[in-house]
Amino acid sequence: MALISNDILIEPEMKIVDGDIAIQQVDDRNIEYIIYADAGQFRKAPTLGVSIINFVSAPTQDGRNIRKKIRSELEGDGYVLKELETRILEDLSTDINVKADKTSSRI
Asked: 7: which of 22, 26, 65, 92 fits an S-S bond (Cβ 3.0–4.6 Å)?
């Protein structure tokens, strides 16, 4: 059974709905944060983070190591991957498509 993660909506700015702080589903945002973050950036999970910038700037990148690291980090945070695609584009940027469900909560 997949869990739905909800959190306070603060980006681009905090929203108030009917006098209360708005919340929304945040799994996509959490996955993006995990992919961009370096290890050590999450206080409660100091080893969590793919550090995608380091992968993209590596001179010999074929995508396998990126997929392996993304899978490892997301599964370690309780996600089950449904789809994971990475492509290195001609301008050396990376296109990443991730679909995952949260199955447990990391504490």
From this structure: 26
Q: Each residue of 27-50: pLDDT tens digit? A: 888 898 999 999 999 898 999 999
Q: Supply the pTM of this predicted model.
A: 0.72
Among 26, 24, 43, 42, smallest CA distance to 34 is for 42
Confidence grade of residue 71 (pLDDT, cut at 50, 70, 90)? very high
- Cα–Cα distance between 92 and 12 in angstroms, integer? 28
- Residue 82's H or E segment, with its range, is strand 79-88
Tokens of 65: 């190591």
Q: Give the integer Cα–Cα distance in Å for 7 and 22.
A: 8
71: exposed, middle or buried (C-beta count within 10 Å: 0-12, 13-18, 19+)?
middle
| Position 107, amino acid | I
